[in-house]
Amino acid sequence: xxxxxxxGLFDEYLEPTVLAHYLLYVPAPSRDxxxxxxxxxxGVFLHEPTAAALLPSDLPVLxxxxxxxxxxxxxxxxxxxxxxxxxxxxxxxxxxLAVTLDSPRAVVRLQRPAWVTPDTESTDTVTTEFSAAxxxxxxxxxxRTRVKGFTEHGSQLPIITAEKRDRGDFGWRYEARDGVPLLxxxxxxxxxxxxxxxxxxxxxxxxxxxxIEAPRWGVRTSLRAMxxxxxLAFRLGLGRAG
Length: 242
What we know:
mainly beta, elongated
């Protein structure tokens, strides 16, 4: 039977724990293109990731027949953040959640969501059987969420694109839709990660940067907003593989 911890990762209304509040900085207003001064504008609340180890019974039979299955283990990890409020006449155009895993042997096999537009959502196809298993778990988790009486308003969601730059270097990009600003709300995503069986924890770093639209010299200008601090380190215990 799938554990409550696994199903809880799909809860759209899970209250996360704030680990850090990172301030974002943009180039300061200057007519001198060589001036590298920066000024604070906006910020981001980084939340504590949560993880749940998947049992063999959570995965489909065909996936368990993989030749290396006995030497591997799998975990679902939930990442989330929330943008800080901006001054009047400013707006977030996009925000990118970036994750880097420390272990070179950790491989991201699935990202959810993979791609969300105003009209459609596509599922990850890197590992078809793994995707099918997670989609099945998501349906159970969604039923639990609906019992609480909440309704998801899809028209308020941003355009979301999963990004994968290397085996353990990945993330998600959130973009404002036409006429719908990127609001300060909790954004969350799931990653299915494959690890060697002897790994009892997962460590890495997370960060967020953004693009902010701001008035400059009477013109609406897009500014890249970056944190001044290093990416936030995280450590998640997985326990021993069952």
